[in-house]
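Final report, results section. Input specification for complex C-07:
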Amino acid sequence: MTNDSHILFETALRMRADTVETELRLLLDDRILPGEIVRPAHLMAAMRHGALNGGKRLRPFLVLESAALFDADGDAALRVATALECVHCYSLIHDDLPAMDDDDLRRGQPTVHKAFDEATAILAGDGLLTHAFDIIADETTPLPAERRAALVLALARAAGPGGMVGGQALDLDAERNKPEEAGIIRLQAMKTGALIRFACEAGAIIGGASTADRERLAEFGSAIGLAFQLADDLLDLTADAETMGKATGKDAAAGKATLVSLHGADWARSQLSGLVSQAHALLEPYGERAIMLKAAASFIAERNS
Amino acid sequence: MTNDSHILFETALRMRADTVETELRLLLDDRILPGEIVRPAHLMAAMRHGALNGGKRLRPFLVLESAALFDADGDAALRVATALECVHCYSLIHDDLPAMDDDDLRRGQPTVHKAFDEATAILAGDGLLTHAFDIIADETTPLPAERRAALVLALARAAGPGGMVGGQALDLDAERNKPEEAGIIRLQAMKTGALIRFACEAGAIIGGASTADRERLAEFGSAIGLAFQLADDLLDLTADAETMGKATGKDAAAGKATLVSLHGADWARSQLSGLVSQAHALLEPYGERAIMLKAAASFIAERNS
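Structure output:
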């Protein structure tokens, strides 16, 4: 990736993030929807604290760009993108809890249980997760019921016990029973990979793409999900705390094996380059329309924060 | 309610509970579904511990009986009933956590964080909540996508920040800022009422009932939800720990005001009788078909455990 295209991509990412942030703010305000009784101000404030955290909004970006490949309805894609970000943010809130990673800071800000309290953080995570399914299933999300149901199912499966939550459970075990290489790969495919895979697959579902296209996008998502994790592990070894805005070297300190700690940084860089080529190849059928998604794959592999 | 009909109802409730238990066991086993990677054994065991707890399965019962009013598909109703029970059980697991109610026992068994650990309990709750939406949205649940999406939406709204989770947040506040009567009613309508209302409304959705029927069942659900909470508060004041299988007098000890503590036991009994009459009246249009639901309303108001 040239420096120019890096800058262009980051600008596009930031623009999308602004749109997602606005939509999140709208969906997480204190106004009630039909069927709701009241949205307690304190809970909603905690949910917003956890969700409006200045993240890069990479997963929503992938939903929006994948959807664009199939000329999907933009409003529908934005809804699904926002719902996915709610799920991602819920997982961070629960991950940061004292009983889990016990983190005080997230992107330089106090984590939800620090800014509020532990009970409120648990409920704020529960609220974001539940609300994500509300957003997708809502009949004001301009999609046929068939696609809304398919998206709920795909998201629930990516986030559930056979996906992200299962990955978090494996991660808890990993500190006690060091997994072998296959175990690490599986853990990461679940903990971080499943939602990134869903992000890319979702675009195809929203756009009513063929099963073949849906599978192709899901495979692209798996490749960049793996790249994302490798890049993260590489950064954990090499970056300093200032660049990352969070504590680094934590995996090593926690005695967690990663593929990078097993095989070294050079191996990781060569793997990353292979994954980017594979991801780009998967997008060949879409030609120029896939430029932004290809740039996303490169960005994920090359990012330094 | 005569003693005979009480016994008949309890037998029916227990039979339904067995069916729900079997379905829960099936849906929460270690076999993976398409799209899942692996279901970590430890996490699934914790989810089962929290879900297969010998509960009365009152909410599933209400789904099944409401659905029967409209000749709904029995398999579909059982799926939705089981999904709702997953949501109920997730809320108990998170409610029992040290940061929340800090309970060691639930139905005489160690709570999930006691039997496993706190992190696993948080994830088990998250897993049950997520899996509930999977069960409903799954295309093997024999319902048109339109109804699956409507059920996901209604459940997410009943369980979300404007429903159950919001009620739990209000409950946390209630220990600090004692709410007035209107505040207590709202808190209870959210914390326990919303899911019971959903249980009854769900039957109408599953059966493809008219909007008027759907609203009537929802209203029935609200009436018995309120009755459920009043009966619970009454029991908290009067029952001994042995009958309840959990600590009693906890509300008073926690300084929590309830409608019963405000107005007394006699007032509560008269309210309960009024709510049962109201609930029965709402079911008049369904004649003899509604006998089981009417018995449920009486049972809820008169239960002593």
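The domain at 3-302 of chain B is CATH 1.10.600.10 (Farnesyl Diphosphate Synthase). Chain B has a mean pLDDT of 93. This concludes the modelling results for the funded period.
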